[in-house]
Amino acid sequence: xxxxxxxxxxxxxxxxxxxxxxxxxxxxxxxxxxxxxxxxxxxxxxxxxxxxxxxxxxxxxxxxxxxxxxxxxxxxxxxxxxxxxxxxxxxxxxxxxxxxxxxxxxxxxxxxxxxxxxxxxxxxxxxxxxxxxxxxxxxxxxxxxxxxxxxxxxxxxxxxxxxxxxxxxxxxxxxxxxxxxxxxxxxxxxxxxxxxxxxxxxxxxxxxxxxxxxxxxxxxxxxxxxxxxxxxxxxxxxxxxxxxxxxx
Length: 248
Description:
Blueprint: E1 7-11, H1 16-27, E2 31-36, H2 39-45, E3 54-58, H3 67-76, E4 81-86, H4 101-124, E5 128-137, H5 150-170, E6 176-182, H6 188-194, H7 199-207, H8 216-227, E7 238-241
Parallel strand pairs: 1-2, 1-4, 2-3, 4-5, 5-6, 6-7
C-alpha cells in the first residue's frame, strides 16, 4: 500500500492530526501540496523532506476569496490531484446560551465550508484525477452530541451529509470521498481542552474510551488507507475511529 506517483493536497498540516497525516502520506511516497495560513509553520513541518515533493501555498481557510486564485493557479499550471485531506479544524466548548452567530460562522468556515468550497471548485475545473480520494476529518461529535458542543457538533455534523451527497456526484469521475470521525486523540487541541478541566472530569472522559485515547498515528494510518487504491470501493462513508467510545 503506497501513494507513489500521487499528488495529495492537505489542509491543516501543522496541527496535531494534520502533522501526523502529513508525515504518513509523505512516507507512503506521495508528492504533497500544503495549504494553510501560516507559511512558516508549514515550512517547519516539512523540514527535511525532499523539496521536489512539497509545495506550500498560504491561504486563509476562513476566507473564500483566497480559494479562486489558488484553483486558477492549479488549473493554469495543469496540476491535478489524486487526493485531498482536510485536517484543519478548531474546537469550542461553551453553553448553548453563550453561542453567537459569529461563532457558528467561524467554525463552519474552517471546519467544513473551506473543504466543501474547494472540492466543488476542483470538480468544476476538473482538477481531480480519476481514482482520486478525498478525506475530510470530522469527529465522533459529528455523529453524536455532548453538552457545550453545539457549535462544534454542528460544524462537524454537516460533513457527514455532504460526504454522502458529494459521493454520488464525484463517482461519475471515479473519485471517492469519505469522512473520518475520531474520538479523543492525544493532540495539542486535547491538551487545550484538558487544561481547563478538573482532574476528575479528565479521568471520566478518558474512562469513556475502552481502548484508551487515540494517537495521531491512528488517524493518519486510516487516512493513508482511504487515500490508497486499496480503498477503491469505499465512498460516501463516515468511518468511526474512537477506541470503542460510541459502543456505549
